[in-house]
Amino acid sequence: MGKTAPSVVLDGFSYLECPRWHDGRLWVSDFYTERVVAIDERGRSEVVAEVPGQPSGLGFLPDGRLLVVSMRDHRLLVRDESGRLDQHADLSDVVSGVLNDMVVDERGGAWVGNFGFDLMGGAPLRYTTLTRVDPDGTVSVAAEDLGFPNGMVILPGGVLVVAETFAGRLTAFDIGETGELSGRRVWAQFGETPRTEDVGEAVAALEVAPDGICADAEGAIWVADAVHNRVLRVGEGGRILDEIDAGTGVFACMLGGDDGRTLYLCAAPSFAEHERRPVREAQLLAVDVDVPHAGLP
Q1: Measuring CA to CA, how many Å separate 207 from each of 8, 85, 210?
Q2: Dihedral sign from CA coordinates of 137, 21, 168, 120
Q3: Exposure of 117 by Cβ count < 10 A (0-12 exposed, 13-18 middle, 19+ buried)?
Q4: Which terminal Cβ of the chain has fewer Cβ within 10 Å, N or C?
Q5: In this protein, which residues make up the domain named SMP-30/Gluconolactonase/LRE-like region (predicted)?
Q6: Which residues of the chain have pLDDT under 70?
Q7: Which helix (H) or strand (E) holds 200?
Q8: Which helix (H) or strand (E) holds 225?
Q9: C-alpha distances in angstroms, 261 versus 18, 66, 294?
Q10: Residue 117: its pLDDT value, please?
Q11: Strand order, beta sheet including 75-79
Q12: pLDDT per residue over 257-288, tens digit each?
């Protein structure tokens, strides 16, 4: 593919995360304005949900309703056709930390990550769990000992891949017929996993800090590298197939557009809450790529 620099689709946001292409628009969470926004290919935007608990992961049920992670009160919300939000599931009994990204499967089952420790408050780094929410709202622990489970994709054939940001790797699981996970394995490892509880030391040691991810039709995964201002196209086993310099921090990515070949990037100068909350410096960027979207989200 060409090395065209990403262009700005829209700016003036606080901190964008968890982009999803759905029904002709890109749906994305803006953390510190506590809004979910849908943006069409011409850059026209609409606020589709206001989430006082801070929105993060997004996904869609088989009937088209939107699921939204409410980070700070440990809930998963569902938006009906009128735009009203109701509780779909309460994760408080299994998760103590701030919730994070999510992927929703074709049945309407959801996998939700969490921080595992007070990242913004300077706490020591801790590994944590991945939570499964069944279509009926039942909550259970799906996997343990994950190094900041972040972006996720479901590849064709029912393979869940989780970005472990502070472990510097992508980890895969096979999804069973009833949603159980098995066959845990490293899908891609980027350098050595940091062996420290100090977040600053870990960040400095990471060759790649995988944040948001999305998959393409050749089985590769685009990875937003949260500490090196870039997105990487990665093959199973960890080979880097392509790299795009975003020119700024990039924390999530999603393939969309009518042909699935527009790579959207959630960009901001940094990720620290105290730096992002008071300003509106985040942008949605886009760049054309050759291989279209596949898998979920």
Answers
A1: 27, 40, 10
A2: negative
A3: buried
A4: N
A5: 17-268
A6: 1-3
A7: helix 199-205
A8: strand 221-225
A9: 18, 23, 10
A10: 75
A11: 55-60, 66-70, 75-79, 85-90
A12: 999 999 999 999 988 888 899 989 999 999 99
Residue 89 CA neighbour count, 13 Å, CB half: 25
Record the tokens describing residue 29, joined without a space: 């969470």
Query: Could you give the strand order of the β-sheet that contains 7-13, starting from the edge strand earlier in sequence?
Result: 7-13, 282-288, 262-268, 249-256
SS3 194: coil
Q: What is the pLDDT of residue 3?
A: 55
What phi-psi label fits residue 191: left (phi over 0), alpha (psi between -120 and 50 degrees) or beta? left
Do the Cβ atoms of 171 and 185 come closer than 8 Å?
yes
End-to-end CA distance of the chain: give it in Å, rounded: 23
The amino acid at residue 9 is: V
Q: What is the pTM of this model?
A: 0.96
* pLDDT value for 218: 98
Q: Is 32 exposed, middle or buried (0-12, 13-18, 19+ CB in 10 A)?
A: middle
Find the helix or strand (DSSP H, E) in which 274 lies: helix 273-276
Q: List, in sequence order, every beta strand (DSSP E) within 246-291.
A: 249-256, 262-268, 282-288
Residue 1: the pLDDT is 41
Confidence at residue 116, expressed as pLDDT on a 0 to 100 scale: 87
Q: What is the dihedral of CA 122, 14, 133, 150, to 10 degrees?
A: -50
| Count of C-beta atoms within a 10 Å radius of residue 171 | 23
Closest CA to 254 of 3, 2, 42, 22: 22
Tokens of 96: 């103590």
- The Cα–Cα gap between 227 and 125 comes to 17
**Comparing C-alpha atoms, which of 51, 50, 62 is closest to residue 110?**
62
